[in-house]
Amino acid sequence: MQLPHNHFKAGLAGTDAQYGIWAGFASGYAAEIVASTGYDWMLIDGEHAPNTVPTILAQLQAVAPYRTAPVVRAVNGDPALIKQLLDIGAQTLMVPMVESAEQARDLVRLMQYPLNGIRGVGGGLARATRWDGVPDYLGTAHEQLCLIAQVESRAGVENVEAIADVDGLDAIFIGPADLSIGLGHPGNPNHPEVQAQIRRVIEATLACGKACGILAPHEEDARRYLAWGCRFVAVGIDISLMRQGALATLARYRESADTARTSRTY
User: Fold this and answer.
1) How confident is the model at residue 263 (pLDDT cuts 50, 70, 90)?
2) Greatest CA separation found in the chain?
3) Which of 119, 123, 245, 262 lies at a C-alpha separation of 20 to 30 Å from 157?
């Protein structure tokens, strides 16, 4: 059995943008529906969605047959949690609130086995090894693992050059919402100060030869960040898309009913 190929990591080395979608329902069934639509990657959110290790596992299993590559966001950089996520088969991990090069180096060590790191050996218990079905998993796992540090605070931006330069870190992802509130502009990621810091992160990341990504569900924002050099952009959020679609559908019928009542009045 071959080690699963990480299409997302391979895409970072290419020239085409990768378009992603946030998966927040914490459901394998919902994740599979989204995966069937053809996005390049899907963020399985373990930070703000009501996910646990078993629900993340269910989503990884559900999307495995599809071309959409799963990216798992951990709730934090806890070593025990990272070990579990790697063992259930997550190949691309995003860790929020990375604020220093030292923190980034610690995360790199969590992704690697000794002597280069501190990852524990799950062996036949781990889905990642396909229960010991992948030959030389211990020697080759790192080839298909991808680590993304999320920069979303004032401290993270101040240290972004050093963070992006860490060996073993594959990409930086910008969190506009947290960054905007941390800079004193809550709910306003388009404030000029926030935009300037976003651009600084993108340029610093690219200067280190790493890929940069961002969440941008509004098309105008997404196209601007792509023009600035972002290589992977989350352009949709499943929960938001469902809510917007439900509201729009209901509004059409209520508007029709209101129009009919108005016509009868006259």
Assistant:
1) low
2) 83
3) 119
| 205 within 8 A of 160, measured Cβ to Cβ | yes
In b/e form, how buried is each residue of 133-154, taking b as 16+ CB within 10 angstroms? ebeebeeebeebbbbbbbbbbe
3-state helix, strand, coil in the chain (%, to 5): 50, 15, 35
Tokens matching residue 144? 């298909």
Name the 3-class secondary structure at 131: coil
Give yes or no: 48 in active site: yes
CA dist., res. 124 & res. 227, Å (int): 45
Q: What pTM did the predictor assign?
A: 0.94
The helix (H) or strand (E) run that includes residue 122 is none
User: The tokens 């990621």 sit on which residue?
Assistant: 189
Spatial separation of the C-alpha atoms in residues 74 and 110, rounded to whole Å:
13
- pLDDT tens, residue by residue, 18-55: 999 999 999 999 999 999 999 999 999 999 999 999 99
Residue 173's DSSP bridge partners are: 150, 213
The residue from 5, 48, 142, 191 that is catalytic is 48
